[in-house]
Amino acid sequence: MSEHDSTYSRRSVLRLGALTFGAAAGAATLAGAGGNLAVAAPAVAAPAPFVNPAPPVSRRFLQSLDRSVALDGWTAQPFSMSQVTLEPSVFTRAQDQALNLARAYPVDRILAVFRRTAGLDTKGANAPGGWEGFGHANEDAWGPDDYPGRANTQTANLLRGHYAGHFLSMVALAYGSTGEAVFKDKVDAIVAGLGEVQAALAATGRYSHPGFLAAYGEWQFSQLEKYAPYGEIWAPYYTCHKIMAGLLEAYHLTGSAQALEIVTSMGEWVHSRLSKLPADQLERMWAIYIAGEYGGMNEVMADLHQITGREDFLATAKLFDLNALVNASAAGTDTLNGKHANQHIPQFPGYLKVYSHTHEQKYFDAVKNFWGMVVPGRTYAHGGNGEGELWGPANTVAGDIGTRNAETCATYNMLKVSRLLYFHTLDPKYMDYYETGVLNHILGSRKNAESSTSPEVTYMYPVHPGARREYDNTGTCCGGTGLENHVKYRDSIYFRSAEDAPGNPVLHVNLYVASTLDWSEQGFEIVQQTEYPKVGASTLVVNGSGPLDLRLRVPRWIQRGFTVKVNGEAQDLAAAPGTYVTVSRTWTSGDRVEISMPLSLRVEPTIDNPAIQALHYGPVVLLARSAATKFLKLSLYASMRLDGSLDTAAKALGDNVFQLGDLTFEPAYSGGSALYHMYFERSEPRIVFAGTDSGVANARRANGTSFLDVVWAEGSFVDRAAFLATVQRTAETFVAEGLLTRRDSQKVLVAAGKAKIA
């Protein structure tokens, strides 16, 4: 028997799905013609307008299909997508645009690159385009051993198939959320199409295992084992992950048995390839720049272990360990500088899932420490990270601003890491980051425009002066994750206590988003009424009766307090920013929980340069509309209030748009197309309090810290007396350091005393 056994039983082939006439004919064509892909792409007629043929199924039925499970070690877990309904908010704009694309986009275009590779009829469909193209005319669907070498052939679109995996995830998520028949029909059609392709590929006898499924031949995987660089190959396991993840979503959210059958056989194929490789070879493979990028292969293999109970799948998940990174991160050693951000972030959800199954502490420590290396020290104001797709030095944000910052995929994956860490730890910082990233970067990455052909999302969401969001990205990695991003906003608004947790049921209210939660298992419906983030308030209406602990997130940006009333009665809660507070009681149907968290304008300096700052309104990052290519300079201390807010500095124009001098600021989530600045440079030449100018220069220390920086270092004051005491203490310090004269010190104290600051 050769190393790659090409003899399959009829049963092993039929297990992958019936070999239809089309699959058999395609296999014959592929084998007889050498599998050459040089077939002219036919023209495609414009799709007919979408008409929904059937009413949605019930949410209770959708919940019965959901096969998602809580993992060992979780103290909180998500609700089924079908249990949460979004009401109109800033998020529903992008959600509705994404759902319209999902309804309209033809399945045959999604399957075209797979069918072409398998020699099947493409049904007149063009490939989606971009990276998801048909490949080079001279390219063949080579097996593991017959690739002629880079010098002897031409290839193109070597990541093809990844976009289809994302689209399958998108329509599965859409069905799990809405119950619309069109989405279930598309899930079933894509799964059936992939099954047909998998069977056709197996029937050729050309590939190493009947579970192989891709939109190109198996040769890329073989070349990776020979350490082929990016350029010759393009991240074959990355594409494999996207296909497997889509199939798992189809299984989890629609109950597709065929999806599970296909993805299980893919898992068997992955195991068959990797289990025979030595550890040092695997380590070298996963460290190769982009070529060794594998997305979340360890996560899908751990998920397959969870579903099937098969130990070989868990063992395969661990074969994706990049030990140098895992061990360094577990030890708290930062080795991220120069690494490709989105090559490595997706590995960490997988490490955490392996931890849930093996309880090996190094995995948990690695994920927890890794997160702390990225947030806040490498994280931009909107939640993104990386420049030119690479991480820079630790604790460097301003110093790593270039022209290609913040790949949207990276934030998509950081949200996954944050969510899983919260399930384990209940640490509020993970959901604070989640709000920043999902509201500003992810929502803001979706253009405010309808399209039936393009996801209309950003690849980069740059942060440099005079930046522009470049939308579309059909077929790119961020175009793929962008298909998913905007149909799953509901998945982290609420969590619940793990099923085996003692005591009252606990509802975690993580995000303030207008929505309705159906928690019928506990006899509750929670209706959240809010215009947040335009208004700093939310009301929860509790329908149902019985004991329940409401765990409410107190955002870290709170400056003016966080208060809670139940049926008009104030609750005595220690609501510190960046925590959760719990309202525990036996509820009566119709009880109302009123949450007040006033929004205010504030600035956040970068971690490495306090002069480079971003303007925020509550959780919202504000962008200055400007085509200038150098940092704008703003003076703001003169407008600071005792609570540290800047509300008097700008005029509110509505919908979180502000006018500050001659600059207009818009919310980062707008989906607009204007040139913008996310950061500005603070310029505070004189010491001024609430518009009262002392006439004294704002002296600076050698490290660049100014007098006013020191005064406002704590961000706010409990009262005017505390403010005046701080000014006096700072003046005395600067005099002692030789940075202020006694006379100038007196001028500063007089100005502070006269200032009408409140």
UniProtKB/TrEMBL annotation:
Residues 507-599 form the Non-reducing end beta-L-arabinofuranosidase-like GH127 middle domain. It comes from the Bacteria. SUPFAM superfamilies: Six-hairpin glycosidases. Pfam families: Beta-AFase-like_GH127_cat, Glyco_hydro127M. Residues 83-490 form the Non-reducing end beta-L-arabinofuranosidase-like GH127 catalytic domain. This is Non-reducing end beta-L-arabinofuranosidase. InterPro entries: 6-hairpin_glycosidase_sf, Beta-AFase-like_GH127_cat, Beta-AFase-like_GH127_middle, TAT_signal. The lineage of its organism: Bacteria, Bacillati, Actinomycetota, Actinomycetes, Micrococcales. It comes from Oerskovia enterophila.
